[in-house]
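Dear all,

This email documents one entry for the complex benchmark we are building for the journal club exercise. For each entry we list the sequence lines for every component of the assembly. Then comes the predicted three-dimensional structure of the complex as a token string, followed by one or two observations. Please use this as the template for your own entries, and keep the labels exactly as they appear.
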Amino acid sequence: MDNTSKNIAIRIKNVTCSYGGKPAVRNASLDVPQNSICAFIGPSGCGKTTLLRSVNRLNDLTEGFALSGSIEINGENIYGNDAASHVEALRRNIGMIFQQPNPLPTGILKNMYMPIKAHYTGEKKYFYEKAVEKLKTAGLYDEIEHRLDRTALSLSGGQQQRLCIARALMLEPKIMLFDEPCSALDPIATYKIEDMLLELKKERTMIIVTHNMEQARRVSDYTAFFYQGEIVEAGRTNDVFFNPKTELLDQYIRGRFS
Amino acid sequence: MPIKQKNHRASDLAGTAYAHISAAIIVCVFAFMLIVILRYGFGALSLRFLIEEPDPSALGASKGGILTPLIGTVVLTLIGILIAFPFALATAIYLGFYAKKGGFNTLVKGAVDILSGVPTVVIALFALLVFTLPQFGFFSVMIEGVEGTNRAYGKSFLVAGITMAIMILPFVIKSMEEALKAVPASYMDASLALGATKWRTIRKVILGAARDGLTTGVILGMGRIVGDTAIVWLTLGGSIRMTGRKPWYAPENWLSTLKNGGSTLTSYIYYASPAGEGNQFDVAFGASLVLIAIILLLNLAATLIGKAGAHKNG
Ligand SMILES: Nc1ncnc2c1ncn2[C@@H]1O[C@H](COP(=O)(O)OP(=O)(O)OP(=O)(O)O)[C@@H](O)[C@H]1O
Ligand SMILES: [Mg+2]
């Protein structure tokens, strides 16, 4: 990957994670350049989610979780300061989308306001306009224009996931993390989200965990291959997929194991 | 033939009969109780019965109604739940979201478990010991006019309400803990990932999502207070009337009413029964009917809320 640290948005350095002493990620190092998409691939249980959730410190609340090494965002080690306010500010600047769409059981607009109302006060009109703008970005506005007050749970799975993306965008994050965002969705919903990812990439850095090789190839610029808690190979997506250096990755890409 | 097929016929028949007879006996006992309660109770029921104060001086005859016991039950239930609610909710939140495994957490859980097993009469006895201390005189009244005593009376609506709160705490805590646990972890993730503080997440997201379950916990707690007798008898006193300044319902006398004793439907039933002062099955069953109606209503409310919640999330 690029060596000029100036363009590196996320720098993961020698990160080791464990749950209650049991290691889940071992000595992982990875650089994600600005405005690119990095895909995490690898078999189940190899630590992709664990490392992803370490980038916005969402694992902090998991009992028994421990991390060593450092993760730098724009040059600053996010684990260098444990103050709650620091961690919350970090999360505010990083959008996260989960495997299961997780809109809250309340109105669609209320979901959109939730992140922004927690941190800012302002005119309702401003909030509304911003929500509409983000729903448009997520390609959802036209579909639900007339039922913005309905409960978010009345939306389809794909719509819920796009709502979650729109909700995350309310805070204008420069970094976004996606944990298998399409695994619960049908191909058309998946396609819509992939489209959006490519659009968002223009001014954002993203990491996406996926079990879908095609998806990794379609959307990502860089790919990191995980195996049993270690990053075995990482590099430009094309190199990783067409010139795998290790036997393991070669077999994984050909679907010999998953 | 070395092996022979076993004949299960007989034991099967016996088992079936046993199950059927047991069920029938339960139905009979229940039907008999219902008939007796309704037969005696309905005779006593009338609007006057509900809105008149009891008149214990009238011998034998079923004079007077159950107004003050009914008010007593309502007041005691409200005091108990109002005190228990904030403590129970805070404890449930602590156990669910802040407690680390082991240590203090285990201690709290153990205390809750043990407290839930202590008979209410023992809790009442303990409350009496504490609230007769002169330092706690504010909650009842001081005994006056007896040479050499410096103790509080230790019986009042306030004392009984606090005692009821302690009695229901473990049940309310447990059911609230369950309600909080039932909230999907993904809600917590959603809110935290957007940078909300943990406390805001709990307050805005978790409590909202758990509201139905929390309400059910409150209602179950109220049901326990309504039905309890031992605590009433020991910490509210055996007087069937309000013992504070008269008239008890005048706003300027409310504090006095709360600092003095009275009765509830349960203690009234005891009082009116042959075991107590009266020998008035009809009024006792009339009050029982009202008591059962209140408990059924509370249970119905809990069920409806549970159903509404299941419907909403489903
Ligand atoms: N909260 C937790 N407590 C204890 N162990 C955990 C926890 N979360 C994950 N693990 C363990 O850490 C290891 C890595 O899990 P992780 O969820 O990061 O894998 P993954 O690559 O995301 O898998 P998948 O593709 O199935 O989502 C696994 O062995 C898992 O059992
Ligand atoms: Mg995962």
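Observations: Residues 164 and 232 of chain A are 32 Å apart (CA to CA). The pocket of adenosine-5'-triphosphate (ligand 1) is lined by residues A 19, 24, 44-50, 62 (CB under 6 Å).
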